[in-house]
Amino acid sequence: MSxxxxxxxxxxxxxxxxxxxxxxxxxxxxxSFADGDGDGTGDIAGLRSRLQYLAYxxxxxxxxxxxxxxxxxxxGYDVSDYRDIHPAYGTLDEAKQLIMEAHELGLRVILDIVxxxxxxxxxxxxxxxxxxxGSPERNRFIFRDGKGKxxxxxxxxxxxxxxxxxxxxxxxxxxxxxxxxPEQPDLNWDNPEVRAEFxxxxxxxxxxxxxxxxxxxAHGMVKDPALPDLGLTEFSVLTGxxxxxxxxxxxxxxxxxxxxxxxxxxxxxxxxxxxxxAHVRPCRMPEYLRPDQLHxxxxxxxxxxxxxxxxxxxxxxxxxxxxxxxxxPATWVLSNHDETRHVTRYGRADTGVQALFRDRPIxxxxxxxxxxxRAAALLMLALPGGAYVYQGEELGLYEVEDIPEELLxxxxxxxxxxxxxxxxxxxVPLPWTGDTPPFGFSTSGAAPWLPQPEDWKxxxxxxxxxxxxxxxxxxxxxxxxxxxxPGLRGEEFRxxxxxxxxxxxxxxxxxLCAVNLSDQPAPLPTGHSPLLVSGPMDGDGLLPxxxxxxxxxx
Length: 554
Prior knowledge:
Layout: H1 11-14, E1 24-28, H2 44-49, H3 51-57, E2 61-64, H4 92-104, E3 108-113, H5 123-131, E4 143-144, E5 167-169, E6 175-177, H6 192-207, E7 212-215, H7 254-266, E8 273-276, H8 285-288, E9 296-297, H9 300-304, H10 309-324, E10 331-333, H11 342-345, H12 366-382, E11 386-390, H13 411-415, H14 461-466, H15 471-484, H16 486-489, E12 494-495, E13 502-506, E14 512-516, E15 528-533, E16 547-553
Parallel strand pairs: 1-2, 1-11, 2-3, 3-7, 7-8, 8-9, 10-11
Antiparallel strand pairs: 4-6, 5-6, 12-13, 13-14, 14-16, 15-16
GO molecular function: hydrolase activity
Protein name: Glycoside hydrolase family 13 protein
InterPro entries: GH, GH13_cat_dom, O16G_dom_2
């Protein structure tokens, strides 16, 4: 493996040390973004070929889902080597080229890091299995003897997030912990060797020029060493909501780890940044974002909030106010690789996230969902702080809910006994050009690893580009204004009075954002004219239902 070679940002971009406070970050699920070598799987070559597209879109950074070597038992979140690239995605040299080329275009690069668990094929875990009970190798993970006379019962009653128990028994009779799938054994973060290893991994990628990390399951790494029973008959998917002093979610010992990580990030001339995937109660989020810990965190409250003016205002207020108390910006996100795409969610009677993993499709009105998705995009991009765009939302893609069962790959499908379809529907490869699958996803025309709907021919980047009223053109216009309009660049934010079912707020320089989520047209403030609108205006100048407008004086 060759030595890391640092790459630099352009001087103007590198000088902005606080870029992350207001960045628009594009999430790349690399397996499904673009296939550069023609095998039907997305890869680094495909991503490099589309960097100009991302730069022209107007985002500030890309976040790449795990690209490390992995058996792909959980889409790459089962890592077997944290310092290399999965062969299907390319090589470490190609990764270096990608980082350099992204920087040349002014795009920063954020990687996923998966510190709660490894793959069961990771060298450490294989060594632990071979070494046996009581060994230093096993102490890197969480092994325990079972209960009962012969140890045949699991050490406790915890339930895994993907269904089933959190314990798997080894041939020598001990059990190991996995909060997710059996192929993802949990690391023991009470072991100094584990902490030192991940600090080394951070430095490895930072030295290559990576600008930051998204921390997978940031709320789960530390466990109560007593491993007490929870006494639950059903699993609490990710948060342990309502459980005080939870034995494996959101424990106070996490913060010492993140303080050491922040010190590493701040040691670089152009400081690196962290964003936490932390499924915690809103009152707990500021604990992760104190000035000596992590920079930002995903806002799952906003993502899961229904399109209701009162509910959204409450979430926005709480997010901005609670994080401002520790000097951190809020972030905003509508979709990601774990949730139903918001075009589909917003076309339903219940526009919130009904459940993390659903067992069957729910009827949806895609015309309505698209109109609401356009309005939500302008709301999100008008708010102060950072914003995340999940690949394909700028094309208006919907959730694919009819993937043949034999092609489903999410471990939730198997772990649930083929009752929950899982997350594959939001991970279908992107359509780029043409009228038939694979829509330019693969350079060779090979069938992609998940099938694309035939009607995505009207959703390709090419088709969006040709339509001045498309979702892509809306995102490009909004992201451009987000960079150039002084009122959208600062942190000023103030609610203004507006009719029931609507939202109206002011940013700097008198720029207003008006959102109509009622079922009736709403008047716009006098003395302002539209700068950007998510859909057609009524002839009488009223803001139609499910529409957002950015307004400026004059």
